[in-house]
User: What shape does this take?
Amino acid sequence: MSLITPEFGLLFWQTLIFLILFLLLAKFAWKPILGSLKEREDSIESALRMADQAKLEMQQLRAGNEKLLADARLERDRMMQEATAMANQHRETEKARATSEANHIVQQAREAIQTEKNAALAEVKNTAAQLSLDIAERILRRELADPAAQTQLVDSYLKEVKLN
Amino acid sequence: MKHLLSILLFLLTLPVFAQEPAKGAESAGSFNPGEVILHHVADSHEWHWFSTDNGNFVSYFPIIAYQPGKGMLVFSSEKIAEGKSYENLKLEDEHLTTLDGSPVYDFSITKNVAALIISSLVLVIVFTSVARGYRRRVGKAPTGMQSFLEPFVIFIRDEVAKKSIGPKYERYMPYLLTLFFFIWFNNLLGLTPGAANLTGNVAVTAMLAILTLIITLFSSNKNYWGHIFAPPGVPWALYIIMIPVELVGIIVKPFSLAVRLFANITAGHIIILSFISLIFIFRSAGAGFLSVPFGLFISLLELLVSILQAYIFTLLTAMYIGSAVEEHHHEDDFGTAEQSHGGSNLGNITRSDVAAH
Assistant: This one.
């Protein structure tokens, strides 16, 4: 049957034309098409990779920023603490200094008062002694005739003296 | 569906019975559907467009005949058409023979050769323009024809070549793509009314299958022949059976390729022509109510079959090449058990393939 017997001529032409077609398509169609497809896929892949990388970098950057911020916060806290401590310390020392100064002043005042008091007492003593001497002198001057007059005199003199 | 079918049958039967006695008697033997169908499916030396009552509209192709001793002879097939003879040559059922029985080799440009040239030109024009599109719009989205055909190219590359052949797929891509689009385009062109039945011709499919066989054999490695002459996981005693089976398999694989494509396409054409012939067999336009929808259905089915057969031919070619270039890797990676398992799998595939044809 002619249907299932391969015709020699057609076999020949088919071989020839198919091989020519194959060579033409391979050179002018498949090579550029497959090359372009590969190129496009490569570029898409590299773009995706780059996007991923950028995302990663962004994340790293954000993490870095956060770390920086946290560091800054920590630093600030530390500085605040330090400042407070320093202020406290300063205050304490100032207070201590003031106290000691005050004590010192009080001490000095006390000493001055003591000195004054002593001086005043000494003066009182002196004055009393002087007064006693004066009185005694005056009594002696009046020749001490009348004992009543003497007592009166003593009293008048004593009234004159105002112990202050 | 049943309802529709009964309506169709009703429409069909009425006019048939009405006209049968009137026309049946006058020309009982004038229409031979088998002859007509085979004539349409087979190759011919002229392109018969259509016939009217006033005659045939035919394009005659050049006959190129080579006779040993006499040399090459080129003339129009009109000179030997319709039983005429010319220079000791005549056509017997579209087969070129000599009057005195001496050998002649027919290199004529037949209808199929003409269709082959036309389809090849179409393929070259289409795919060079697609390639130009890639060059013109580098890195841009494809448009038009390019965007229509690109998925097929990518499909052949990713689903057929990469999966069946493996890392060495790139070398075989031009052949696989040419094969796929050649078969597909010619299947589609073959469905065009009046066109040649190129992929339904056994010479064409045989040549494609032989090319696949040659490529398979030339790219085969030690591992491939190892599977044939020392099938892994098979006891020594079975080698007597296995080796001939595997050797036969080498030939049977391309043979099945050729027969599958030829038979599928030719069968599709025969079915369509048979449905159309119903009209002439029943001598009734009413038969058209049945045969036209059925013919249309088969035609649409053939559109699917045309790409399916192109895909199957390409896929099997890729698988045969894949088995030829496959490296001996199972043993290194997974141990001997995996290897024998893989081997028996391959054996199963081969055997079922042999059994199927």
Remarks:
- Confidence is low (pLDDT under 50) at residues 7-28, 331-357 of chain B.
- Chain B touches chain A through 51 residues (CB under 8 Å).
- The two ends of chain B are 35 Å apart (CA to CA).
- The first strand of chain B starts at residue 46 and ends at 52.
